[in-house]
């Protein structure tokens, strides 16, 4: 099992040119090649090192038997392989597991593992807190602190994969799917999410197919094309309302990017692949967005988009004014969508006993002074 090693702290009194060691977990294969080139090494050595990091979970360069002692020693001087530090692990009776992880700066994030018969999904965070302020989400209450680095994003997968493997005493791959549905808005941190995705998809990394990596967004429209260029991974969009008036209130980002513009960007995202659909997430909020007319309006709205709908029974958290729609209301809503020809599933609530369900992740944001206001539409 990998144990997080603390980053080497250079002694700045003695060595004024010392820089912090580079955490290799955040470098995609091309960037690792470039890093090696700056050390005077051939870039192809990235292929030798990459699997040790991601497939074997090794933290000690000396254990990399194919790179030679000299390079291992030099890497030890200027690089680290450092995952997040586990603070707590909670296990729900349904098998869902939540880890609170501490980052080097003291902030905490949450990562959730959801085992199912046909897949094992890891739900990862992309930011400390979130700036979007969706009315029904616990993360919003925490405010925004900062973007995660690629190393911190990949570190969640690295930690979970190797911890679970060690526990099972098995070298078989455990995590089959990764969803960017934890804390934060991944498309407001594409600079770091991009390399992280490339590492997840890399055959020498986690080897996930692009369909098994899902980026969920509240609708940062201008970033859709850039995400597609990184890799056309699965796209989920947090819709939650069938009209702009209501969505403006639930997802304030809607004031900036209206539903019509959002759906246009969704169509473009899947246009090149006739088999692909965008998943639309819709939290079921009692008396707010769950009426039959709203289901009909949603069905009309999504008629022109290759779509599937994920209904998420609202997960309450302390201080919220919303309530979960009753089961029969959710069923009726689903049936209207099904009758209109939309593929619709009600997401099973997982991990709510450990506050690991959708919208319940709060972490511990150290300070919120850097809350980014321009995201909110004026
Ligand atoms: N910022 C991204 C990633 C978060 S994904 C996004 O907005 O898509 C988490 C999903 O859970 C989103 O669809 C979010 O809208 C939904 N969600 C948030 N709070 C919730 C709650 N309390 N109950 C159910 N779903 C919630």
Annotation field: number of helices: 11
Residue ranges: pLDDT <50 for 5 or more in a row?
1-17, 369-378
**Gross geometry:** globular
Could you name the CATH topology of the largest domain? TIM Barrel
Helical content band: 25-40%
For the secondary structure, the number of strands is 14
The strand order across the widest sheet is 3-4-5-6-9-10-11-12-13-14
Name given to the CATH architecture of the largest domain: Alpha-Beta Barrel
The end-to-end span amounts to: 48 Å
**CATH top-level class of the largest domain:** Alpha Beta
**What is the strand content?**
15-25%
Count of all domains: 2
Radius of gyration: 21 Å
Biggest beta sheet summary: 10 strands, mixed
Q: What is this structure's SSE topology?
A:
Elements: E1 22-23, H1 29-38, H2 45-54, H3 69-78, E2 79-80, E3 85-91, E4 97-102, E5 108-115, E6 120-123, E7 127-129, H4 138-141, E8 144-147, H5 150-168, E9 177-180, H6 190-201, E10 213-217, H7 224-230, E11 234-238, H8 244-250, H9 259-270, E12 278-284, H10 292-301, E13 307-313, H11 327-339, E14 343-346
Parallel strand pairs: 1-2, 6-9, 9-10, 10-11, 11-12, 12-13, 13-14
Antiparallel strand pairs: 3-4, 4-5, 5-6, 7-8
Helix pairs in contact: 1-2, 5-6, 10-11
The chain binds S-adenosyl-L-homocysteine.
S-adenosyl-L-homocysteine binds at residues 134, 136-137, 181, 185, 216-218, 238, 281, 283, 312, 314-315, 358-359.
